[in-house]
# Entry
Amino acid sequence: MLVLGLETSCDETGVALYDSERGLLADALFSQIDLHRAYGGVVPELASRDHVKRMLPLIRQVLAEAGCVATDIDAVAYTAGPGLVGALLVGASCAQALAFAWDIPAIGVHHMEGHLLAPMLEATPPAFPFVALLVSGGHTQLVRVDGIGQYQLLGESLDDAAGEAFDKTAKLMGLRYPGGPEIARLAERGTPGRFVFPRPMTDRPGLDFSFSGLKTFTLNTWQQCQNGGDDSEQSRCDVALAFQQAVVETLTIKCRRALKQTGLNSLVIAGGVSANRALRTSLEDMTAALKGNVFYARPAFCTDNGAMIAYAGCQRLLAGQHEGLAITVQARWPMEQLPALH
Ligand code: KG4
Ligand code: ZN
# Structure
């Protein structure tokens, strides 16, 4: 089954062709980062308009790259939520229109299920069951995964998501949007041990997270540096490193706890923050000590992309699921509400 996947939940237009027999055939992405950078974050109206502009050229591009024509496509998968409603509607309307015109099924995919399954596109995919750490701009969740659609939420952030904490902290420090890659880049040149920040909520039991206090702590430290006349690049790097280390160690402690609690030793990390190299290394060390493994997607498939939507949609379509003709999207959508595939 050849599936066209469309991702438009936020600030990236992602389009891909995934074939259930041959794997991923083509994948194209247009990132709107330059468009939103001047505003320090995503402007929803601008995002929607840009998705409209990019969608059809990207679809033509993946068809050409895969050497396919429209009539080869068996189904269309699109992100139906969670995300920005206006942006989601672009992908949903486009997918439903194409499916209607081509007389093929369409399926709405849950964006976080897309992220969660993205490591399945790699050479060594994880096997069920596993614990997943979903860390994106909008979500930080620990989930027990027993199969597609068999999700048990173990813990989540009570305030900012991990990616959001990176983005907001970066903004407070005068860095560019998106903040995650910027902080990661500065942290590489940071002095280990110069600043040590708290590891929020690690001193009490449970698997929930809280990152907003860490953001304030980081801002205060940076302001103290500046007030003392030190706004050097080195100090910025040192603060960035201390912040990143606090996030990474907090996530690692909670992942270890989740593995212990479930008795599992496979961990999947997915979503934009899973591209962070320090996080990957820390989780690799932690799982190795438990004689387990950590799985993640290639960096381009950690952040938003069409391939994960085409893949997730394909699995659900193969199980017989598809949508009616109505165009419905959801800004909020708990992943546990998804039906299981048996
Ligand atoms: O999954 P994603 O592309 O979009 C959402 O679904 O939200 O995640 C974007 C988030 C942003 O907050 C961005 O700053 C963060 O992922 N991110 C990173 C890195 N690359 C992207 N955070 C830390 N380190 C990175 N290397
Ligand atoms: Zn995402």
The beta strands are 2-7, 12-19, 23-31, 75-81, 106-110, 130-135, 140-147, 150-156, 266-270, 293-295.
